[in-house]
């Protein structure tokens, strides 16, 4: 057999040996062996919203910058206002203007008013949220006798029908945003602005003795006429 005829057969045999040797690499029986350009068909898994630049094991700015470029989804720019598909709810996305100071608390009490009208529906919505996030301390009727206070020896919050009966709605909202004193923490991470205002509606309902403010106004007007 001539040399020209032997060359293709030898080439194929050599390629077969190379493929077999590559496929047999690795001690794991489930391993596919050596993979040729795996990134072509297996994309790297990237965690969304993970700031790779904060990884304590990355010691150089160059490495941190490279990892940030691989970040899955970008965080919004600081100060960005979320888009509201419902124009009626656009106000809930606006930045909160009152700082976490004594002056901010007092200003909120004077100028901050609820964008939500008090109705039976909003009071019921507020009650559902209050039951999950507030009742364990403030109690079912806002008397400061929740389970945490009774069973956990925690300080008793002031009553909504006594000491806090005339607390303005702006101060209630401000306390939900930043927390109040040592015992009450901020609820801004658990409740969005609309949910916080709904809680305010229910607190106002409790301040009013479990009655709608419109009902109280109508009763007062009838008494005055009689």
Write up what this structure looks like.
This protein is mainly α and 226 residues long. It has a domain at 112-220: Cytochrome c-like domain (Cytochrome Bc1 Complex, Chain D, domain 2, Orthogonal Bundle), CATH 1.10.760.10. Helices cover 45% and strands 0% of the residues. It is built from nine helices and no strands. The protein has helices spanning 3-23, 61-69, 102-111, 120-133, 135-138, 147-152, 169-178, 193-207, 213-225. The longest helix is centred in the N-terminal third of the chain and has 21 residues, at 3-23. It is elongated. The N and C termini lie far apart (127 Å). The relative contact order is 0.09.
Can you lay out the helices and strands and say which pair or pack?
Blueprint: H1 3-23, H2 61-69, H3 102-111, H4 120-133, H5 135-138, H6 147-152, H7 169-178, H8 193-207, H9 213-225
Helix pairs in contact: 3-7, 4-8, 7-8
The second-level CATH architecture of the domain at 112-220 is: Orthogonal Bundle
Q: What overall form do the CA principal axes indicate?
A: elongated
Strand content: under 5%
Distance between the termini: 127 Å
Q: At the first level of CATH, what is the class of the domain at 112-220?
A: Mainly Alpha
The Cα radius of gyration reads 32 Å
- The CATH homologous superfamily of the domain at 112-220 is named Cytochrome c-like domain
Rounded mean pLDDT score = 79
**Fraction in helix:** 40-55%
Tally the helices: what do you get?
9
């Amino acid at each position: 057999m001539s040399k020209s005829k032997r060359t293709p057969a030898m080439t194929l045999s050599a390629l077969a040996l190379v493929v077999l040797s590559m496929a047999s690499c690795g001690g794991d029986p489930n391993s596919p062996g050596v993979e040729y350009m795996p990134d072509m068909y297996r994309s790297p898994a990237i965690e969304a919203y993970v700031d790779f630049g904060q990884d304590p094991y990355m010691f150089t700015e160059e490495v941190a910058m490279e990892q940030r470029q691989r970040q899955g989804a970008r965080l919004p720019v600081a100060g960005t206002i979320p888009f509201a598909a419902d124009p009626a709810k656009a106000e809930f996305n606006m930045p909160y203007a009152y700082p976490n100071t004594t002056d901010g608390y007092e200003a909120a009490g004077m100028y901050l008013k609820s964008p939500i009208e008090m109705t039976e529906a909003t009071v019921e919505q507020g009650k559902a949220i209050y039951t999950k996030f507030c009742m364990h301390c403030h109690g079912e009727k806002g008397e400061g006798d929740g389970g945490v206070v009774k069973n956990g020896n925690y300080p008793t919050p002031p009553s909504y029908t006594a000491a806090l009966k005339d607390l303005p709605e702006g101060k209630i909202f401000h306390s939900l945003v930043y927390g109040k004193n040592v015992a009450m923490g901020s609820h801004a991470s658990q409740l969005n602005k609309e949910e916080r205002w709904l809680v305010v509606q229910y607190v106002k309902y409790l301040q009013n003795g479990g009655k709608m403010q419109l009902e109280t106004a109508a009763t007062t007007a009838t008494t005055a006429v009689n």
